[in-house]
Specification:
Blueprint (H helix, E strand, L loop, with lengths): L2 H9 L1 E6 L3 H12 L4 E7 L2 H11 L3 E4 L2 E2 L2 E2 H11 L4 E6 L3 H11 L3 E4 L4 H12 L7 H13 L14 H11 L4 H8 L3 H14 L5 H15 L3
Parallel strand pairs: 1-2, 1-3, 3-6, 6-7
Antiparallel strand pairs: 4-5
Length: 227
């Protein structure tokens, strides 16, 4: 490699990918490495693996999905805020932005983009957060402005708005059809802890039984993942 080529490579902003689907990571790697100003420096499929690598490599930006292998994307974002505060986080997820964007922002992310968006928008989102800006869809930006002005929640119409981040994660996993033991293993907590979360969710959503909780979780998951 010539000196000029080395300088060009070094000038590229380093991007780290966190997603539990190999095809998504491959697609992102190909997309990003085609850009003149960006280069992928590493990838991971779980939160703990990503935290170790990002803390060591210190990329300019980490692209993070919310659903990771046996771990939580929101937890990873919160941990990165503590251990690698200079790393900018952009969420790229299939989870409905209206329900998760504000949570991701509170956790420490600088942007949120849906996986169904075009490659052009994905690249634009990366560059915008790297430039110090925030990136959200126009719909969410409008809802956030309404929340700021009128004090309304971005998801007042959704039962999930009543839940904490961890309760929403449990609710989402229930909607995916996972059992209590699987949820405990994914979130790295005890089965008893998951049961406590389920009890809180039932109380907040005014549900009388575990069957009603599961039915509501399945309905909500279907609604938020249609399309």
């Amino acid at each position: 490699m010539t000196a000029s080529a080395t300088q060009t490579a070094e000038a590229k902003k380093q991007v780290f990918l966190v997603d539990d689907h190999p095809l998504v990571r491959e697609w992102l790697t190909n997309l990003i490495n085609q850009q003149p100003d960006l280069a992928v420096c590493g990838e991971a499929e779980s939160g703990p693996q990503a935290l170790e690598a990002i803390t060591r490599l210190r990329p300019a930006v980490a692209i993070v999905d919310l659903s990771l292998k046996d771990s939580s994307g929101l937890d990873l974002i919160k941990n990165l805020k503590e251990s690698a505060p200079t790393v900018v986080v952009l969420v790229l997820s299939m989870h409905e932005e209206l329900h998760y964007a504000v949570r991701a922002l509170r956790a420490g992310a600088r942007g949120y983009i849906m996986k169904r968006e075009t490659t052009r928008k994905v690249v634009a989102a990366i560059r915008q957060v790297l430039a110090g800006g925030l990136y959200f869809s126009e719909q969410v930006a409008t809802v956030m402005a309404t929340q700021f002005i009128e004090g309304k929640s971005p998801a007042d119409h959704s039962p999930a708005a009543l839940l904490s981040d961890r309760e929403l994660e449990v609710f989402e996993l229930l909607g995916q059809g996972r059992g209590t033991r699987q949820i405990a293993e994914t979130l790295l907590v005890s089965i008893k802890t998951v049961q406590v979360y389920c009890a809180r969710i039932k109380e907040k959503l005014n549900l009388g039984s575990a069957t009603e909780l599961l039915r509501e979780a399945l309905r909500w998951h279907e609604r938020t993942h249609q399309d």
